[in-house]
Amino acid sequence: MEHIKLKDEAPDVVEVLASGIAHDFNNLLAAIKGRASLMMNSIKPSDPLYQHIKEIILCIDKGSEIANQLLGFAKTDEYYPTTIDVNRLVRRAVESLDLKGKHVVLDVDLEEKPLIVDADAEKINQVLLCIIKNALQAMPRGGNLTVVTESAAILNGTAQAYGLDNGYFVKITISDTGIGMDKEVLEKIFTPFYSADHELHPERKGLGLTFAREIVQNHGGVIDVYSTPNNGSSFSIILPLKQTTNNLDIPAEEEKLVMGNESVLLVDDEERILTVGREICKALGYSVITASSGKEALDIYKNQSNHINLVVLDMIMPEMNGLETFLALKKYNPDIKVLLSTGYSIDEKAQEMLKNGCKGYILKPYSVIDFSHKLREVLEI
After folding, report:
1. Residue 194's pLDDT is what?
2. Claim to verify: residue 118 and residue 202 sit in the same structural domain
3. Residue at 108 is within a domain
4. Is 177 a member of any domain?
């Protein structure tokens, strides 16, 4: 178990130097990529040079990623904290994941009450995606990815071990069932550009985890890591819980609804879900049709496909489940836009839907705000 302590801020001269190098490097890469793209567009895929140019562009993109990480280092002192609900941030992060073909089962367990922190939402999102990306890369043959949020009191010896004051904290734990790490690797994973001597840890290269630790530390928190070889890894992001009398005091930008005017077919075997879903869709400006089964949804779509812009589809239904209904709908319209609505698990059936063209998923239960954003995201694809 490793506990991370705060380090001193980098000198201003280093930040300026890093920023300048990153900008110049990105400009150089942009020029190279532009010329490589011109060459690629001027030859056929069957040309022997095509694959070489393609690899060059991939290397350029990787270099650009490193340059952007360097820019992140130059701006580690630029934070724009707001009052945010960690649960909402985590939900959005996992719903942005592309799990197609990865054979990864996603399980999410969010604490029921809002977990409020003062933080820069963009930077915490960067931390979440970095650690989740590492977890996925540590499972090249698939496995289980688990994301859990909880509030916890950290006191006395435990607080001292973390380098924290006694208090209440939010804990976001991201676990995988991947290759794991031994003690030697575990002690060095936050070292810039570190990678193990063997090729079991390609995901540990670069600056991602270095910046993740820096960001969390600058929020007054720590990253705790536990791992053993062949038994997966667990990263816990620990942030101070905001002590407020009203845990729902979220800034207006976090509460902004996104409206629409398209037609939505809502499919669920639970009448209460259909009822509330119908009211939500209407409140957001959509016209809505409901179906209580996969078969009913097919019948409706056959007759009204020209007027239906999006299908919101439940996974677990009797007779025809979400996957079966989706595949049947695809036969009528290969370009149909479907949003999967499911519980806190993306299993093989859900992955099969995503692999075959389902445009996205949203985890139940969801807020009206999150639902409104997800609808627009899928409709605008």
Report:
1. 57
2. yes
3. yes
4. yes
In a domain, 248, yes or no: no
Task: Indicate if 232 and 299 belong to the same structural domain.
Answer: no
Average pLDDT, the chain: 82
**203 Cβ contact partners less than 8 Å away, ≥ 6 residues apart:** 133, 134, 137, 138
Tell me the percentage of the chain whose pLDDT exceeds 70. 81
Query: Average pLDDT, stretch 164-176?
Result: 93
311, pLDDT greater than 70: yes
How far is 190 from 70, CA to CA, in rounded Å?
Answer: 15
Q: Do 214 and 307 lie in a common domain?
A: no
Q: What's the mean pLDDT in 296-304?
A: 94
Burial label, 17 (beta-carbon count in 10 A; 0-12, 13-18, 19+): middle
Distance CA 251, CA 39 (A): 48
Q: What is the pTM of this model?
A: 0.66
In this predicted structure, what is the pLDDT of residue 259?
Answer: 92
For 247-271, the pLDDT digits (tens) are 444 444 445 788 999 999 999 988 8
Residues 6+ apart with CB under 8 A from 63: 25, 29
State the residue for tokens 């259909």.
274
DSSP letters spanning 70-95: HHHHHTTT----EEEEHHHHHHHHHH
- Tokens encoding 42: 């001027």
Domain count, the chain: 3
| Residues 148, 109 contacting (CB under 8 angstroms) | yes
- Tell whether 245 is covered by a domain: no
Q: Judge whether residue 90 has pLDDT over 90.
A: yes
State which residues form the domain around 301: 256-379
Looking at the structure, tell me whether residues 60 and 87 fall in a common domain: no
Q: Token pair for residue 241?
A: 């819980």
* Statement to judge: residues 33 and 128 lie in one domain: no
Per-residue pLDDT, 256: 75
For residues 35 and 377, give the distance between their C-alpha atoms in angstroms, rounded to a whole number.
Answer: 33
From 50, 74, 98, give the residue that closes a domain: 74
The least confident of 132-136, 137-141, 207-211 is 207-211
- Buried (b) or exposed (e) across 172-204, using 16+ Cβ within 10 A? bbbbbbbbbbeeebbeebbeeebbbeeebbebb
Tell which of 74, 107, 136 closes a domain: 74
Q: Name which of 177, 130, 166, 124 is nearest 149 in CA terms.
A: 124
